[in-house]
Every structure is written in structure tokens, then in C-alpha cells.
Amino acid sequence: MADQILNKELIKPENLVYKKTKILNDNVMHYCPGCGHGTAHRLIAEVIEEMDIQSDVIGIAPVGCSVLMYNYFNIDMQEASHGRAPAVATGVKRLWPDKTVFTYQGDGDLAAIGTAETIHACNRGENITIFFINNGIYGMTGGQMAPTTLEGMKSSTTPYGRNIAMMGNPLKITELVAQLPGTCYVTRQAVHTPSSVRKTKKAIRKALEYQKKNIGTSFIEVVSNCNSGWKMPPVQANEWMEENMFPFFQLGDIKVPEED
């Protein structure tokens, strides 16, 4: 009886430290334990709720680890073929210019199969927001080398590590799109610590607010882990990411609107 009284007292609104956003439903996510996708989902959902734009948001999820994103968000979602999310988002935004439209893509999707769609949407300055999760590997389809796989990094198709002479250099797609005149806001963040989570959420909010101003494409890269593909437990994967991914994919804003 005493426990029941205590529980009722603790769950009073003024005592709540955190409450799950209503933008996410109760479906269990398919992401591997320790993966950054779940945190990125939560942050996007929280920003949508805080901006009170749930009924005006349309998300585009392509093939890859994000393929079931529509199963978790209480917003309108559209599936896209592998790599084609920016093209689909372009069509959606042009048909409904008052809607807030975003894509959510991995590195194999955005920087390999969908390189053309990404580059040209950003160059045109389509008024959309692109969320790019970079874990340096094809996470869902077998752990193959991606454009963002680091030199010497092992994958299922580079068992001895990526060889630059044979396989080329890792691609910094975020720096590339930052040079295009159509992009207004380009940043690279992470979600592995409380501090990085706060910075990423702030960046997400900025990107969606810039879209309302119709000043070009916002591009947010989130450097994340893939503990399953990297064959590491989550904690070790985060440590490896800090030691190896961050020196190459440096965190922080790369391009901001002139008004800021």
C-alpha cells in the first residue's frame, strides 16, 4: 500500500524528469542494442512535438536500417527506393510547400546509391531537411564497405581493411554538400553522450526552423556507431568511434545561414 502511494506521488507531472514523446508510438524498434538510430529517432520526434508541427510533417525513409521508420513515428511517412529519398522529398515538398519535409538516410544510401539525388537536391537548394546517419558501413545489408568506411577499417567486403590505392578514399559527403550554393545549414553531430545529444537536438530544431524560412537545404550528419557491423559491444563501439571516426569526421557546424 505504501509503495502504491509513493508511486502515485512520483508520477505527478511536477515530478517527471522525462516523458516519452507522443510522436513515437509504442512499437518496439528493430535497431540493435546500443545503436544510435533510436536516439536520433527520439530527438527528431521530440523536436516535432515541441514545435507543434505533427500534422504538417512528412518524413521520407528509404531502404536500409531506417526502412521501418514509419512503424515508429506518429506522422505521415513515405517510403523511397534505395538512395532516392531526396528525389521523393523534392516532389513532396513541391506539391505541398507548406509541409515540413525531411529525409532520414544512412551512408550507403545517401553517399553511394543516392549520391546523385543528394548532390542535385542540395545544389538546387530544395527546401527540405536531410538527416544523414553515418556509421561508416552498410549496416543492414551485410556490413559491406561504404563510401564513408575509413582507411584500414574492416568490413565484410574489406576483411583486411580499406585499401586506399584499390578502393579510393573515404568520402566526406557533408563537406561536399556544404560547398553547394543551395545548402543553407550543414552540420555534423553525434548522439553517444548526453552533451552530444543536446547539441544534436539543437541542430535538428535549427534545421526545421530554417525550412520554414525557405532559405535552402539543411543537412545534418550524425556520426554514429554500428556495433553489430563493427563486431564490437556498444561501449567499445562508442570508444572506437571517438578514437577513429571523430578525427576524420570532425563534429561541429560547417555552414550556417548568413543571418546567424
Explain how this protein is built.
The protein is of the alpha/beta class and 260 residues long. The chain has one domain: Thiamin diphosphate (ThDP)-binding fold, Pyr/PP domains (Rossmann fold, 3-Layer(aba) Sandwich), CATH 3.40.50.970. The chain has ten helices and seven strands. Helix 2 crosses helix 8 and helix 4 crosses helix 5. The longest helix has 20 residues. The N and C termini lie far apart (56 Å). The model has no long low-confidence stretch (mean pLDDT 93).
Task: Provide the fold topology.
Layout: H1 2-10, H2 37-51, E1 57-61, E2 76-79, H3 85-95, E3 100-106, H4 107-113, H5 115-124, E4 129-134, H6 164-167, H7 173-178, E5 183-190, H8 194-213, E6 217-223, H9 227-230, H10 234-248, E7 252-255
Parallel strand pairs: 1-2, 1-3, 3-4, 4-6, 5-6
Antiparallel strand pairs: 5-7
